[in-house]
Amino acid sequence: MSTATTTVATTEEAILKLTLAYDKEIHEEYKYSAYLPVYDTKTKFPPLQPFEFNDRGLVANKEKPNLLPKDNTSVKATKLTPVIGTEIRGLQLSQLNDLQKDELALLIAERGVVVFRDQDFKDIGLEKQKEFGKYFGPLHIHPVGSHVKDHIELHNIYLGPDNEYRNQRRSTRLTTTGYHSDVSYEHQPPGITILTLLSVPSTGGDTAWASQTAAYARLSPPIQALLEGLRAEHSGFPQAEGARRDGKFVRREPVKSEHPIVRVHPATGQKALFVNPGFTKRIVGLRDEESEALLKLLFTHISLGQDFQVRVRWEEGTVALWDNRVTAHTAISDYNVHNPQEGLRHGFRITTQADRPKGVNGLESVWE
């Protein structure tokens, strides 16, 4: 992996240091070179502040006549599985009006993940891409990840022969998969995430999502009742410590949050599990052995529940949008980055902040 550092003068005459996370020689003719991963190794951010969040799905027409008009046969929406995932063709994200975006927010909440095919989204420019994301909530800046140059809100997704960091972090495990909800340790963790891949392998590199609403519904009533009264600790400290250990820059200090294990979505009223193997560390108020046993049960349930999961193959022009409040997801790094026939997986993630999690009977997230 390239570790070259460049120095850039900003308009305030401050010196910005960028570490390249790619090999420039490999990408001299790459169409999306402006999106290649870099690390700003100087800019620090203060803790995120509480804010009032208005879910766009709350004002949407539940019948979705603007997004999915019944008299327009050119727009095709297909359920990918009965419980999670919808694929849409014949509709451009870049052309949606506000009514359509509101209905899209509700559809994402209901279906967990919505996959748009044949999109021009990756070619509309960085500012328009960010503007689209901001409609659904403030854009989250990842505390440790690589990003797009001059657009730190765009979290970079990159795995290629010149940067295998995303795989090396899991090199001691039998699988590269790891279900998680994006940065769930935040006090107001993300709602909608928009993932656009700019370069996709010819085969492999899929993404899978699990429905946390279905996962909750499958549990027996006594277990549901138990979980509804509990909070779990989500921590960003291991991620930050791992980044520092690997020589990466931590631009915002880590936090912990105690979120309800069962949260209620504000737009749908549905109950969903809100734990994930990536960031959930313990159940508050339980003995260590009790917490470990219960979390192991839930993590295994989420990871192995193929009858409430969907696996999506990426195509040219695919954009996936999901709601982190009702899903967990994982990349599937099953291809050989050193085989030119299989290629590079590169894209960017726009993640929007959302509400303070609320559970059953008024149980809310807390933190120190």
Automatic annotation (TrEMBL):
Cross-referenced Gene3D superfamilies: Clavaminate synthase-like
InterPro entries: AtsK-like (IPR051323), TauD-like_sf (IPR042098), TauD/TfdA-like (IPR003819)
One MF annotation (Gene Ontology) recorded for this entry: metal ion binding
Keyword Mitochondrion: no
Co-factor(s): Fe(2+)
A single GO cellular-component term on record: cytoplasm
Occurrences of domain TauD/TfdA-like (ranges): 78-350
Keywords on record: Dioxygenase, Iron, Metal-binding, Oxidoreductase
One Pfam family recorded for the sequence: TauD
Metal-binding in keyword set: yes
Secretion signal span: none
PANTHER family in alphabetical order: ALPHA-KETOGLUTARATE-DEPENDENT SULFONATE DIOXYGENASE, ALPHA-KETOGLUTARATE-DEPENDENT TAURINE DIOXYGENASE (AFU_ORTHOLOGUE AFUA_8G02210)-RELATED
Similarity remark: Belongs to the TfdA dioxygenase family.
Protein name: Dioxygenase-like protein
The organism of origin for this protein: Immersiella caudata
Upper lineage: Eukaryota, Fungi, Dikarya, Ascomycota, Pezizomycotina
